[in-house]
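In line with agreed milestones, work has continued on tokenised descriptions of protein folds. One protein thus recorded appears below exactly as we store it:

>
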Amino acid sequence: MTIDYQVLREAAERAMPAMERLLMLPVDDDLLSEQELKDYGVDIDALNAFKFLTGPETVLALLDERERNQQYIKRRDQENEEIALTVGRLRVELEGKDSKIANLTAERDALREGEMGDARHSNTRAAADIYFQLVEECEIPAGGSLVEYVDDMREKLEAAEKRIAELESGSQAQKLVEAIIVAIENEQERLFDEDYLMDSKECIDVIREEVKRWNDSRAAGIRINGGE
């Protein structure tokens, strides 16, 4: 049912004076005829129009609409409460991350500035510099892990090892991949060790040496095959 609120309001406003007039009658209005009510100044037409517009069907429609509005308000309040809780949780998480970043930045700066002057902290500071440099060079996103990056690289190297084994008949490719994997594993194990700086160059040299030896062996094999 569609309710014309403007018409209903106008009918109620017209009926108000008539209702007030009825309350002022010296006798019960049920005992008076319609003409007698008119003689007392009661607007019978206004009362009849209001009664017609406010029948049971209209009242039920108004009650249904009121219930729908209350349900909507309840859902909206619940959504607002959930949003407020989410905003609060995100704010706490953000503050925690900001605090963590600030602490990590302070620790990094302290390591780089060398507030502790002994050799141990000097090595730690230098290792931290290399760590952050590796993070930047590897383009690891914020919150990422260099260790996870190395693990991922090892998985890719293992996949490459299988592919090389399929394409190469010799054993040099197998040895090269194994040497690279071992070098990366050693690099990962010593990542947070204070002697990391002494071993990082050796690790790179091992990789370069294995690559060179594999290339030389592969080139020699090509020459032999070509000679045959």
Notes: The radius of gyration is 44 Å. The chain has two domains: 5-88, 145-227. The CA atoms of residues 216 and 222 lie 10 Å apart. Helices lie at 5-23, 34-39, 44-53, 56-113, 119-137, 146-167, 172-189, 196-227.
